[in-house]
Design goal:
The protein is mostly helical. It is built from eleven helices and no strands. The termini are far apart. The chain binds zinc ion (2 copies). One zinc ion is lined by residues 123, 127, 135, 138-139, 216.
Length: 297
């Protein structure tokens, strides 16, 4: 086995998947935003910091793949004492333990709900004191659009989607579930960032929409920390962080110190390590936030 060749092959495979998906999403959201823009003006290809977002868009899947595999190997060794390659493949092949014996559709539902619940609380944690500086990178987009969906610091990814996926695979859920949910997740996260005025009527309580997530991205003067759920607004309703003002649309996005925030990827990746304080001081502790007093619609 030649490790460098394998790594290059793996990167090639990942890119071969990312390119067609990117073209499809670009076409879909260009057409939709033409008719139903939430914030009319610049199309996504003329958004500020487009090059930065494109870098994240292609680097994040590579990073996620390498680190997911690493964490899966490490987790199986640490928690289950599995050390050789064949045993590792058998361990993850169809899941393991009681969860893997459930029908696949039920495993998929469990995965969706459990992952989204964990992501809700991790997201709130990232809006608190010491973690905000990593998550601020995601919030530094002033022109939020579908291509902004991948703008995440690696620390945010490890303690977010990657960590949650690995935890659920370690719990026994079959990886086959992720083959179905993976593409749905990519589409849905591009969708909630897309420049669309879609709130989906009564379904706004059921599924995270572009308007729902754009409110999350608004700057502090517009309300700031609400709508943390990735997929199901139920968590925000249950824990008092839901916000969908019925009479207007979100308009201004970004972080508090936008002027001094780095605009390119290298500066952003280094940012949390250079900065000790927080930009957006937490309003109380992140795990017991005051309920929102905004009209919820
Ligand atoms: Zn956030
Ligand atoms: Zn976002």
């Amino acid at each position: 086995m030649n490790l460098p060749v394998e790594i290059v092959e793996m990167l090639g495979q990942t890119l071969a998947k990312v390119v067609p998906v990117t073209i499809a999403l670009a076409l879909v959201f260009s057409v939709l935003a033409h008719f139903w823009a939430c914030n009319p003006g610049r199309p996504w290809w003329r958004k500020r910091e487009l090059v930065t977002d494109l870098c994240y868009w292609f680097l994040v899947p590579l990073f996620a793949r390498v680190f997911r595999i690493g964490l899966l190997v490490f987790g199986a060794a640490l928690l289950f004492g599995i050390r050789d390659a064949d045993a590792l493949i058998a361990f993850y092949d169809n899941g393991h333990g009681p969860l893997s014996r459930l029908p696949l559709w039920l495993q998929a539902v469990l995965f969706l709900v459990a992952a989204d619940f964990m992501m809700y609380w991790l997201h709130r944690m990232f809006h608190g004191g010491g973690f905000w500086k990593y998550h601020a990178i995601h919030h530094s987009s002033e022109d939020v659009d579908w291509i902004s969906a991948a703008r995440f610091h690696p620390v945010n990814l490890l303690l977010g989607t990657i960590g949650v996926d690995v935890a659920l695979l370690l719990a026994g859920i079959s990886p086959e579930v992720m083959l179905w949910l993976g593409p749905l997740n990519i589409f849905h996260s591009a969708f909630v960032h897309a420049n669309l005025n879609w709130a989906l009527g009564p379904f706004k309580y059921v599924l995270a929409t572009p308007v729902f997530h754009r409110w999350h991205h608004t700057c502090r003067e517009e309300g700031g920390d609400t709508n943390f759920a990735g997929t199901f607004p139920l968590w925000d309703i249950l824990f008092g962080t839901f916000r969908m003002p019925p009479d207007r649309l979100p308009a201004r996005y970004g972080v508090d110190d936008q002027a001094s925030f780095p605009g390119e990827i290298i500066g952003q990746l280094a940012y949390p390590f250079r900065k000790s304080g927080t930009l957006r001081p937490p309003e109380g502790r992140w795990w017991r936030k005051a309920r929102t007093d905004f009209p919820s619609g």
